[in-house]
Amino acid sequence: MAWYAYCIGEKQAFPELARHRKPVPLDSVLGVSGNQVFLYPASDLAIVVSEHNPLETLNQKAGVDHARVIADCFQHSTVLPFRFGTVFNDDETLRKSIRSNQRQFVTNIEKVRGKTEMHLKIFVDDCCTHEVARHASTETVGREYLSNLRESASRTRERQTRARAVSFQMHRLFMPLDEEVSCRLTDNGKMVLDIAHLIERKHVERYHNKFATTSAMMRECFMQLSGPWPPYHFVHRLTRSHVHAAEKAAAPVPIMEVATAMA
Fold it and tell me: Does the domain spanning 115-229 belong to CATH 2.60.120?
């Protein structure tokens, strides 16, 4: 029987595993394809899984179900999410994967225990919009090619400087334990900064209050906040150099990407 894997949690966080050495149902939680979710004990860990038909195609709804199960487990335990679509062919494959990586999993749980992830999306007007429009029709003209290349490089540096300044300001205002930042341009001429902040779970309310005052203060930006989430970005950083690629264990897809795909 194949197992679809959602995340790894702490066995002690699930009282139903106290007297069991075999998988036990997680009450009132259904996973991918509406299948019953089970807690699979492995030493001090609990692997959250459901039965799976390998011939079944995983669709967008499955991505939403995957994220929902992880979020439910996060209410009870520190979790290390599996990448969406991780399937173990049988019990032996699952046990072998967990056994060979157990020390690293336990270490990573210790590192993110009591922490959560907040996600900021910041929309900033592109400082180079007018220059882009002015050169758009001439970039292929031969004699201006080198000149436009230099100006394009200059625009890129300006955007990078602006993005770094906004990112630094967010770091100074929110003071996270850790952060992941990415930046992209949209078709309507805005820069979008995606910022994941790792914070203590007990400070979530304070973070929300800080967001309210910051978004009112920074009128030149439009800001969106989501969370708290399981620490997807930061678990990924911890595990990417330790997990076997073939097993794809505990290498998460951020819930924000799953949610975007569903839209």
Answer: no
* 207-248 confidence digits (pLDDT tens): 999 999 998 888 778 899 998 999 888 886 655 544 443 344
Q: At residue 138, does pLDDT exceed 80?
A: no
53-88 pLDDT, tens digit per residue, is: 988 889 999 999 999 999 999 998 999 999 899 999
Residue 127 has pLDDT above 80, yes or no: no
Q: What angle do CA 19, 25, 30 make, to 5 degrees?
A: 155
| pLDDT for the residue 163 | 81
The full DSSP string for 177-224 is: SEEEEEEEE-TTSEEEEEEEEEEEGGGHHHHHHHHHHHHHH-TTEEEE
Domain ranges (residues) in the chain: 2-113+234-262, 115-229
Is residue 118 within 8 A of residue 228, CB to CB? The reply is: yes
228 preceded by a cis bond (ω within 30 of 0) = yes
Cβ atoms of 158 and 127 within 8 Å: the answer is yes
